[in-house]
Each structure stands twice: as structure tokens, then as C-alpha cells.
Task: inverse folding
């Protein structure tokens, strides 16, 4: 009895799938196999290889395969003859119509060139097809050229560039939110290593946009290789060097930024250099980012409406081919950021701001070894450090009043946190069993430390008649020390049942020392092409995902104690100071989410595609603090709720998050790097936790889920980079329209009145427009761009008076305004390829 028959008796599902897949299988007459490599002979994994008949005499096709981690592919073709081969991968130019004559088994190595900047474009696109059967993940992608080509507000900022992705929003504080998630519900990776802030779990890394090759965000269904993010994983791939030197310099001449008739002294120079260390064997890429900002804040008096900052970062990346079967990668990143008057806003004058200094240091090394044909193993280690200090403008008490904030911010602090991480990733050789199987397995371990020293003064709450309602001061050492260890292991089976059907089955196990708990994350995903032309793809899946444990809520357990004194109408203490303390929880679990996804994509032509996606995420076991002495107390927008009774806040797993979205996207590419994209998302992001800007964790749980502060039920984003009728001229367009973010209104005591987040800011609309001219001057290549941000002059306010009875109640402040920008880019000598 054959092996498949014996297996089918034990597993009826295999028999059923084999029966369904049988009509889709073709005879394996002549194999075409080989490798896809980049300019440095490194494997290009995940590239789609498509083979089509060159003449009508050969029927059938197209035939497709995706490269494995070694860059290998294998396709069985029915007859001898002439074929055309296409290869595509995000971040690389397509290899198009490579003619191959096939008489017998043939091994063919195909080389892809990375997408680079203007003047280096060729007559193909760097965008892959959206209907790749081997791509089971639910993901959005951006290339480095797209981030550089499109004009958007603060175009020097990599974080702002992520808003070009559908489903990505930024709140007024600068926090990023992917598919309705909090900032700590996504894992952020740089070249395969976790760079999330261990304290908050957020993304605080500064990168030069010129050094980015591609950005992938996967949510819902994605490989169990990626954990510690219920909402998904953002993977940033940086540029690499080649045997030719390449140079870029952007805004090396201070650009003009005209806003409300004023010329601001903003300067964002970036420099990139890449090339060989040893030709044919070792290469480097180095990108430097420098930013001096002198920002204007509308709604404040002249002379008191600017804030400045000075930041720089440097990312150095190398690749060394130790041998044809051993490749070593290294990265070193340093970021320095000094911000003055941080927190300045229409309701927050200079006295309430802080001077904040932050540093980040990141170093990694990854060794990629080929054990045998079609088998690969990776070992990696990385160290990441974050340091930061915050100093207020003085030591007066901070004041909450109906008209806004006054006094000096109440926290002086210094924080240090670090992560040491190691990983291993093994790709097993493919094997056949009722289809082909690609097994991947791996594990990772992290060691995290957090130390801090806080000294707080306190804050007062002032009423309408300028009477003192309460005063909160702090006592205790403010010394914090937290250590955590994380361990994980995972396995994935990519099962290609037939040419047009693939199923991914995987599982991940995580364990965390702080919560003394583990969790298992099963995942399943499928892709199916129902038609033989491979132009339509249906995909979907289900997964359980878990969040990493942020160190901040555990640090609060050792932090200072708050003492709150209530005052009566006569201005006298109504009683003795009452303490507010934080205590550990018991039986804590890792936060989890269940994710359902379904998508349909169709390729109308080689350059036009459209898709629809549905995502449903239900988060449970999220961290928050609950007041054991008053669990049903109404939520407050103050740092700590006021009251005559003491507060004992216990860490618990009571937070629940719900997100639903339907997204429509159309994408069109042209020759060169010209393209346009339009997307509309209808979504709902809700939580039972009241999120507070003054704390890293929510301090109130409400009975029913309410909109989160970054909920935007309707959002349209469209952008384009298109050629103009004149040679070497191009136009950049960006339209971003969304519902206004929700907010709550409060009494003078800070207590929320009515449903949480039941009010909204006005509809937000941005239209950005720029014209770019590419030219050669004295044998050097330049690109000059002039544009307008917020062309229509939409208000787009960022603050609101939300205290009932105040003079500015429901007045929107912080209008964006229209401003003009100029950019100059340098690309080296004209003869450089």
C-alpha cells in the first residue's frame, strides 16, 4: 500500500484535500529550478517566480513558485520549449520577460536589483503582485522610495511616513496606532530584531527615511515567528551596500518652511553612503539623520508659541559573505534627541513644559548558515538601550484649571531600560506528503532591565472661582528597579497542497517571568486562487496572539506614593491627606487577542490591482489598574482620581479591546517608480479601559466598551507620484481624510461627565501637493521639490476645551494651517549606476 493511502486511512482530511487538489495538479515533466539572489549574492526569500509560455504553441500556465529562505525555487513545466520568466519582490525591481529555452532539467540563477532613488529607475516597478499564493500573511507594505517620493507633513520623519499605510493613524501626541491598537500592542522590528521600548512597548526609534528599503506591517494572520504583539508586527528592512558606491544627501541646504507668514528655522539634513568594504565580499550602508526644529504652536501669544528640538541618529549596516554558505549581518544604531518646551500646546503654556533628553543605542549581529541544499539556520544577538531624563521648567505645583494647565509639570525623572535578545531560526528542507511542506522552527529569549529615579512635586485642582478643590503631593524614594525574562519557541508548516492552494499551520509558546505565566498561540491561514489565470486570490485565517509585558506598570508598584488632600468651600482641608498606592496583582496572564481575517485580491492587469480586507480582533486579559476601594468610581481625566477615600490600585487583567474593519484598496503602478494608491477603511476601535494621557496605563474600567481616543470610523488615504508631460518632472499628491478623534468632557473636578469619548473633533482633512524636478548639474544629479502641506487650509485642530462651564468649553484649538516646503536632494555623479 502506498504511503499516501496508509496516511489517508489514519487522516480522512488528507484524503479529502488530496481529492480536491487532484484536478489542480499538473504532470512534472521538466523541472526548472534555481536561486534568486541580490547584488551581493545574498538569497532573496519570498520572491515570486512566474513562468509563462513564450509562444501560443505551449498551452497552460502561468506556473509560479515562491523562493524559500535560501532563495531557491522549483517549477515543473509540461513540455520543452521557450518560456518567459518574471521575478518580483518588495523592495526590488522586477525581473521581467527573461527568455529561457528548456530542453531538459535546467538550473537558473536570477538576480534582482534593489529599488533605489530617482535617476536609477528602470522601466519596471518595485511593487510585488498582491495575489501571491505563497503569501498567507495579512499585511501592508511600503517601499523606501514611496516614503521618499510622497510629500506628507514632516516628510523628514519616518514615523509620519507610516501614515501612508491604510489602517495607520497618529494621535495628537505623536503616538502611532495600527489597526486601532494601542502603541504597545504591536511589535516593532529592525532587520529582524525587536526594537520596541521595553518600558512602554511603543516605537521611539528615529530613522532616516533615506535608509529604509521596505516596511511590512502584518496583522491578524501572520507567522508565529512574530509574537509579543496582539495587533501585529512592523518589520523595517534597511538598505544595503553594493559593489558600487552610492551617495544621497537631502536638505543639506536649510529648507524654507513658511507657516502663517513666518519662516521657521527647521533644518532636516540627511546623508546616506553605501558601497563595498571588500568588493564581492563585504559591503556597508550608513545613513545619518539630523533634525533641528523650531515649531510654531497656534493658539498661544507671540513669543511664547515656539518649541525647539535637536535630534540626530546614525544607522550603520554591514553584510559580509564569509563564504558562499555563510553570511554575517551587523547593525549599529545611535539616536540622540534633545527637546525643549516639550508638551507646549494651546492649553499648555511654556511654564508647564519639560526639557527632555533621550538616547537609544542598538547593536545586532546575525549569522546565516546554509546547512545543506534547501536548509538554512540563523543565529542572532542584539542589545538595545534606552535612556531618558525629563526636567520641568520649575518646582512650582502643577495646576489643572477649567481654562487649561498652569504652573510647572510635577515630574522630574531619569529612566534607563535595556533589552538583550537572542534568536535562532531554522528552515528545514522541503519534503512532499500530500503536497509540499516547508517547516520552519525557532526560538528567542529576552532579558530586560528597567531602573528609574523619580522626584515629584505635586499638582492642584482649581475650580471655576479659582478656589482650591484638591492638592496632591508625593512621598517616597522614587527609586525603581524591574527585571524580566522572556522565552519563546515556535513552529510553522507552510503546506502547499496544490498549485493554487496553500495552508499555513503554526503555533507559538511564550513565557514571561514577571507574570510567571505562559501562553500558547495557535495560528492557521490559507490562500487560494480559484481561477487558473492566478489573477484572483482569496485568503483568510485565525490566530491567537499575545502581547509583551511592558515594564512600566510593574515599575509603578515601587514608585512614589501620592497623598491627596480635599478642600472645602472655605479653602480649608476637608480631612487628612489620603494615600494612593499601587499593589501587585495575583494570577496575572499574558494579554491575548483572537483574530479573524478574510481578504480577496484581484489583479486586473500587470499594473492594476484591487483588494478588500476584513479584520476582527477581540483583545482580552489586557493590563490595567483597578481601585480596590472604589472599583465602580466614575473615571477621571486627572493623573489620579480625587476623592476623600484612599485608593489602592491593583494590577489586573480586566482590559478588553475590540476592533473591526473593512478596507478597500486600489493600486496602480507605471513604468519607473511612478504609481498611485487609494484606500478607504470603515472601522470601529473600542475598549473598556479609559486611557489617560498622564499615565502609561489606564486607571479606570467602564462597564461597556467605548471608543478609544484614536478611533476613526471613516478614513480615506490616497497618494500618487506621477510623471508630468515635461521630461524629468513629477508631481506628488497625498489626500488623507478621516473622522475626528473622540474625546470626553469633564466637570471641574476632573470627573468625566456623560459617556466616555462621546464627543468628536471636527472632520480632519489634509491635501499635500508637490512638484519635483530631476536635473543634472556639472555632472552631478539633483532633485528639487517645492510643495504645499494642507493645501486647502483645513483647520485640523489638535486640542479642545473640555471642561463644562469653562469659557473655552468645546472650543477647538491648535489649527494646523497651510505651509510651504522646499526639498533639495543630491544623488552623486551622473555616471554612477
Result:
Amino acid at each position: 500500500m502506498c504511503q499516501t493511502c496508509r496516511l489517508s486511512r489514519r487522516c480522512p482530511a488528507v484524503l479529502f484535500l488530496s481529492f480536491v487538489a487532484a484536478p489542480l495538479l499538473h504532470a512534472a515533466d521538466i523541472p526548472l529550478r534555481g536561486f534568486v539572489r541580490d547584488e551581493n549574492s545574498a538569497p532573496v526569500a519570498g520572491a515570486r517566480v512566474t513562468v509563462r509560455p513564450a509562444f501560443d504553441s505551449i498551452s497552460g500556465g502561468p506556473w509560479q513558485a515562491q523562493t524559500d529562505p535560501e532563495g531557491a525555487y522549483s517549477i515543473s513545466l509540461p513540455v520543452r520549449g521557450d518560456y518567459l520568466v518574471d521575478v518580483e519582490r518588495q523592495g526590488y525591481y522586477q525581473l521581467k520577460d527573461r527568455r529561457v529555452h528548456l530542453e531538459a532539467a535546467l538550473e537558473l540563477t536570477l538576480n534582482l536589483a534593489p529599488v533605489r532613488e530617482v535617476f536609477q529607475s528602470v522601466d519596471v516597478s518595485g511593487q510585488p503582485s498582491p495575489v501571491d499564493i505563497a503569501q498567507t500573511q495579512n499585511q501592508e507594505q511600503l517601499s523606501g522610495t514611496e516614503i521618499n517620493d510622497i510629500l506628507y507633513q514632516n516628510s523628514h520623519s519616518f514615523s509620519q511616513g507610516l501614515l501612508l499605510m491604510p489602517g495607520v493613524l497618529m494621535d495628537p501626541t505623536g503616538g502611532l496606532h495600527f489597526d486601532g491598537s494601542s502603541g504597545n500592542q504591536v511589535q516593532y522590528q529592525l532587520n529582524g530584531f525587536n526594537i520596541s521600548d521595553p518600558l512602554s512597548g511603543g516605537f521611539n526609534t528615529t530613522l532616516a527615511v533615506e535608509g529604509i528599503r521596505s516596511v511590512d506591517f502584518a496583522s491578524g494572520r501572520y507567522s508565529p515567528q512574530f509574537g509579543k504583539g496582539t495587533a501585529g508586527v512592523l518589520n523595517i528592512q534597511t538598505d544595503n551596500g553594493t559593489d558600487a558606491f552610492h551617495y544621497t544627501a537631502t536638505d543639506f541646504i536649510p529648507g524654507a518652511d513658511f507657516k502663517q507668514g513666518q519662516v521657521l528655522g527647521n533644518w532636516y539634513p540627511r546623508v546616506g553612503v553605501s558601497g563595498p568594504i571588500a568588493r564581492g565580499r563585504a559591503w556597508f550602508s550608513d545613513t545619518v539623520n539630523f533634525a533641528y526644529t523650531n515649531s510654531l504652536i497656534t493658539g498661544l501669544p507671540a513669543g511664547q508659541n515656539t518649541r525647539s528640538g535637536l535630534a540626530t541618529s546614525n544607522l550603520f549596516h554591514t553584510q559580509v559573505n564569509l563564504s558562499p554558505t555563510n553570511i554575517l549581518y551587523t547593525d549599529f544604531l545611535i539616536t540622540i534627541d534633545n527637546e525643549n518646551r516639550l508638551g507646549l500646546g494651546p492649553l499648555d503654556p511654556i511654564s508647564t513644559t519639560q526639557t527632555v533628553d533621550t538616547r537609544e543605542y542598538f547593536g545586532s549581529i546575525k549569522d546565516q548558515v546554509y546547512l545543506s541544499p534547501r536548509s538554512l539556520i540563523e543565529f542572532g544577538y542584539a542589545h538595545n538601550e534606552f535612556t531618558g531624563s525629563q526636567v520641568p521648567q520649575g518646582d512650582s505645583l502643577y495646576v489643572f484649571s477649567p481654562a487649561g494647565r498652569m504652573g510647572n509639570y510635577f515630574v522630574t525623572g531619569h529612566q534607563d531600560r535595556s533589552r538583550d535578545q537572542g534568536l535562532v531560526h531554522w528552515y528545514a528542507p522541503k519534503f512532499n506528503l500530500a503536497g509540499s511542506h516547508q517547516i520552519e522552527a525557532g526560538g528567542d529569549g529576552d532579558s530586560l532591565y528597567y531602573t528609574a529615579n523619580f522626584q515629584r512635586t505635586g499638582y492642584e485642582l482649581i475650580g471655576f472661582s479659582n478656589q482650591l478643590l484638591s492638592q496632591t503631593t508625593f512621598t517616597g524614594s522614587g527609586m525603581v528597579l524591574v527585571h524580566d525574562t522572556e522565552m519563546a519557541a515556535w513552529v510553522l508548516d507552510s503546506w502547499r497542497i496544490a498549485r493554487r492552494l496553500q495552508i499555513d499551520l503554526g503555533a507559538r509558546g511564550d513565557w514571561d517571568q514577571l507574570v510567571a505565566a505562559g501562553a500558547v498561540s495557535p495560528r492557521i491561514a490559507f490562500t487560494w486562487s480559484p481561477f487558473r489565470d492566478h489573477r484572483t486570490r482569496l485568503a483568510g485565517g485565525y490566530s491567537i496572539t499575545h502581547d509583551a509585558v511592558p515594564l512600566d506598570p510593574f515599575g509603578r508598584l515601587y514608585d512614589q506614593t501620592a497623598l491627596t488632600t480635599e478642600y472645602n468651600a472655605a479653602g480649608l482641608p476637608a480631612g487628612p491627606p489620603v494615600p494612593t498606592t499601587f499593589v501587585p496583582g495575583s494570577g496575572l496572564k499574558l494579554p491575548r487577542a483572537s483574530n479573524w481575517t478574510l481578504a480577496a485580491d484581484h489583479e486586473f492587469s500587470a499594473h492594476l490591482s484591487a483588494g478588500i480586507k476584513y479584520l476582527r480582533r477581540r483583545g482580552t486579559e489586557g493590563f490595567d489598574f483597578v481601585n480596590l476601594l472604589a472599583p465602580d468610581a466614575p473615571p477621571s481625566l486627572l493623573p489620579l482620581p480625587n476623592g476623600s477615600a484612599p485608593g489602592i490600585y491593583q494590577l489586573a487583567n480586566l482590559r478588553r479591546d475590540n476592533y473591526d474593519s473593512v478596507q478597500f484598496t486600489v493600486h496602480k503602478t507605471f513604468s519607473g517608480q511612478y504609481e498611485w494608491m487609494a484606500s478607504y477603511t470603515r472601522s470601529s476601535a473600542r475598549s473598556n479601559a479609559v486611557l489617560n494621557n498622564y499615565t502609561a496605563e489606564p486607571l479606570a474600567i467602564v462597564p461597556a466598551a467605548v471608543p478609544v481616543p484614536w478611533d476613526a470610523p471613516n478614513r480615506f488615504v490616497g497618494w500618487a507620484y506621477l510623471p508630468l508631460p515635461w521630461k524629468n518632472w513629477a508631481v506628488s499628491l497625498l489626500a488623507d481624510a478621516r473622522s475626528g478623534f473622540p474625546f470626553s468632557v469633564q466637570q471641574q473636578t476632573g470627573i468625566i461627565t456623560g459617556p466616555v469619548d462621546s464627543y468628536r473633533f471636527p472632520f480632519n482633512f489634509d491635501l499635500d501637493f508637490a512638484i519635483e524636478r530631476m536635473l543634472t548639474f556639472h555632472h552631478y544629479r539633483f532633485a528639487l521639490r517645492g510643495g504645499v502641506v494642507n493645501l486647502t487650509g483645513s483647520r485640523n485642530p489638535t486640542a479642545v476645551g473640555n471642561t463644562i462651564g469653562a469659557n473655552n468649553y468645546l472650543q477647538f484649538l491648535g489649527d494646523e494651517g497651510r505651509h510651504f516646503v522646499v526639498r533639495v536632494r543630491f544623488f552623486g555623479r551622473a555616471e554612477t549606476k
The two ends are 60 Å apart (CA to CA).
